[in-house]
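We modelled the chain as a single entity of 127 amino acids. Its sequence is:
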Amino acid sequence: MIRGYGDHAANERTFLAWLRTSIAVIAFGFVVEKFKLFALTLVSAASLDAGNQALVERKLGSFPEGAGRAFTAVGIVTILLATIRFVRTGWLLDDQAIHAPSILPDLIFSVTLAVLLVGLSAYLVIG
């Protein structure tokens, strides 16, 4: 029997939750990045004149591509950090000493996502 099995199982469930969240962030980044292609396809299907097509392309800009790449990068980095956190927590669970919890990774992830979402929202509202 594994000593502290419940704690190790909780650690694994937390790791899997971080992985699911990271995959969702990566998928959202992919959707944001491909939004420009979708919008340009709609514009070309709408049979707009060349002037209006150029205006729409200029309005779209390159922000969706950059934001999509940023979300994808945040998702990948989060997978790496979640793996490190999972292994470290497993070691700490096996250690007999008492350790203080750290909320820094959670805080950094939350702030980064909030900044990206505010930037994307501002782009969609203003642009």
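As a brief sanity check on the tokenised model: Helices lie at 5-45, 50-60, 63-94, 104-126. Residues 5-45 form the longest helix (41 residues).
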